[in-house]
Design brief:
The chain has about 300 residues and is of the alpha+beta class. It has eight helices and 17 strands.
Amino acid sequence: MSVSGEKIWLDGRFVDWADAKVHLLTHTLHYGLGVFEGIRCYTTDDGRSAVFRLSEHIRRLYDSAKINLLEIPFPRNEIEAATLDAMRLNHLKEGYMRPLVFIGDGEMGLNPGRNPVRVAIMAWAWGKYLGEESMVTGIRAKVSTFSRHYVNAKMTKGKTCGDYVNSILAKREALLDGYDEAIMLDTNGLVSEATGENIFVVRDGVLRTPPSHTVLDGITRHTICEIAADKGIRVSERPLTRDDLYIADEVFLTGTAAEVTPVREIDRRSVGEGRRGPVTKLLQEAFFDVVAGREPKYERWLTYL
């Protein structure tokens, strides 16, 4: 899906979309050290627009920067305000926002030295990441031959640009093999996450997901855990093996882009009955109720434009 818009926030001011350019010697372009966030804005039932869990996303952006020894040269409240303004100035009722912190040009080599830390915020219209039909029918996934980064290979709490080379390789492998998505194991052979999503397994009514210290601590993941617990569904963070996926009653993925997407098949094995299961459907519908402003209990997660 091609992306376009009108304005991009770059280093403290909005510029025309086509004028948001960087030098070819931009350090992050060569070495991958940068951090980013993905944030969604939804149209609510009353016709307003609400950004979902804005403060949590911006907090994670600053956490990611700290992990990677990057000092963001703007206060958090200014980044939050600019993120909202990016939606407004691109005349979007709903869409996707991408704050990006990167190292500019200057010195080359692995040490960025005194190169400036720069910030951009983009916003565009973006539909269902894994396809509209997939939200009901589910997707086909394969266990990747590529291992996911583990805690001492690359710190997993940061949403770091270069980490996603690993995800790109796994994603392309899955697509070339005729699947929609890849599920990645960690270096111990345990289930980690998909290329850009956390993973959940339902077995005998219990919702299971890999421990948070081994995966990106997803904001949608946290949302689903809280909603599930509020609905009386037991949530268990525990290691999962590859064959746990094969014998699961249900499997689904969560993420800002993917939202709540069912998985109907893994490695040519049907998951459950080969379609979206009842727990997945319940939690998926509950999630969309929340972002549409239909659940006052979770109003604290919505920031209105």
